[in-house]
Amino acid sequence: MFKRSDETLIEKAIAGDAKAWQQLVSRYQAPLYYYALRLLGSPDDARDLLQDVLMVLCRNLAQYRGDSSFKSWLFGIANYRAMDMLRKRKNHQELAEDYDCPDEDTPSYELQLYGQQTQRLVQQQLRLLPPEQRLVVELRFYQHFTFDEIAEQLALSSNTIKSRFYAALDKLRTQLELADVEQSANF
Hints:
This protein is mainly alpha-helical. It has helices at 6-14, 18-40, 43-60, 70-88, 109-127, 131-142, 147-154, 158-185. The longest helix is centred in the last third of the chain and has 28 residues, at 158-185. The model is unreliable at 91-106 (pLDDT under 50).
């Protein structure tokens, strides 16, 4: 089936085409939700962020100028809103621990269990990073944005983004090594 470009859908949605609006929303709804879930750690917060971003999109779609890709622009809105949520709940650092991420393949039960445990461990360690570093890791690994695209979204230099990214990787590596040692000691 023919897949319409974002720009075509945007033009039609602005002109009042409900079907184009629905296609645009359905194209980005799941990636935005899972982005929010990984970043915020709570399904409720992820749904709240998704709803907030879609409301902003609804009100401001006509303001999209096309200076960057629509995905970058949309995730820029999500980044701003997510960081705002993280700042507001800084006093409440308690994050939800468990949630399910969709799995496209169906490996053996042992591989699924190991994968889930590893994913849970990585997610726990990501939550320990400062929000600025967590955001860069999320955008780079999970959303597949380039350093330049992330820099544009966050209005920072590429060097700052790279610095945050590599600092986060160093912290993650250390945290995961310590967590692995602790987990091995518990067996």
